[in-house]
Specification:
This protein has helices at 13-23, 31-41, 44-54, 61-73, 91-100, 113-127, 135-149, 152-155, 169-193, and strands at residues 3-7, 26-30, 81-85, 105-110, 160-164. It has 194 residues and is of the alpha/beta class. Helix 2 packs across helix 3. It binds adenosine-5'-diphosphate. Adenosine-5'-diphosphate binds at residues 9-10, 13, 31-32, 35, 53, 56-59, 64, 86-89, 93, 131, 141.
Length: 194
Amino acid sequence: MNIVILGGPGSGKGTICEKLVGDFDYRLICAGDLLRNEKSSGSKLGNQIAEIIDAGNLVPDKIITTLMFHEFQKPIKLGKSYLIDGYPRTEKQAISLDGMINVPIVLWLEVSDETTIKRNLKRGLVSGRPDDANEEIIRQRLENYKKSSLPIKKYYEKQIVEIDGEGTPEEVYKRVIDTLFEDVKELKDIADIL
Ligand code: ADP
């Protein structure tokens, strides 16, 4: 089953994806990594992207959707599912994704603003990411998240599973696994009745 993981900056999407890929046979596509790879390629597009993401803003829908589309063109083993980190972040992207794959589950990691700032500043000490370097840019990312991404919750009303993202990675991962298996069990129960 394809899974999309969303949540604010530093909500732990990457950490949870890493654990899921370690335990299950998912094909991971991380929107932030796609953009950072393009950035470090030094291409003209990469330079445009760098300016936008380093300032804490969202890249235009068309750019990230094109990069995602290319990923979905790559061959995937039969029966393998996608795990998608950080896409869609706008309603327009959500509509595009629906045209590319089916999205039965959206995990939404919830953390407080305070945790967001703290985690990103801490990550900035080791990540070398310019967008983690100072509080002003982190706040800008948080603002963009609230303005552009939070409204997608309504779009995903039927698929959304909200997870408390506070605590250690192990605690959050346990919540994710418990919720996922509960959900799968529920779907199976319904299928058995039908
Ligand atoms: P975080 O979720 O902590 O902000 P990511 O690595 O997921 O970190 O994303 C880093 C940056 O890449 C974002 O701040 C944004 O500038 C850009 N980005 C990632 N995904 C998208 C997307 N779906 N649409 C537009 N911009 C994106």
